[in-house]
Amino acid sequence: DASGHDERRSLNRTLLAMLLVAALLAWRGLPQPDLALALAFAAGIVAIAILAARVCKLSLHLAFAIYAAGLLWPLGGIAIAAGVVFAATVAWSRLHLSRHLPRDLVAGGLAGLLAATLYWPALAALRG
Length: 128
Description:
With 128 residues, the protein is mainly alpha-helical. The chain is 80% helix and 0% strand. The protein has helices at 5-29, 34-52, 60-71, 77-96, 102-127. Helix 2 (34-52) packs antiparallel against helix 5 (102-127). The longest helix is centred in the C-terminal third of the chain and has 26 residues, at 102-127. The radius of gyration is 15 Å and the shape is globular. The termini are far apart.
């Protein structure tokens, strides 16, 4: 967890680059687009965090927890519910530890939800 503004900026830029490289490698090396697309959307979450940095300290912890819960969609309601409970626990911990303000959690939750919501139709389109 990068506390300082400069630490976050450096971490987020590095994370963005790593996720984009991983997505490209997965795209070129794997027969199915699932992982490459998931990594690309994860990079999108980090890009949103970078763009939102002037307004809020978007919670990447919560964004990725929500995103992961959304990726559990094919496993059904129990798996999704477990993911949502985990995400709620992450949100509580971020507030309890005074790492984020409520607006940071809302921004992170929306970023994760957006990525998860867009992932499934994008995957269907890629699969044709």
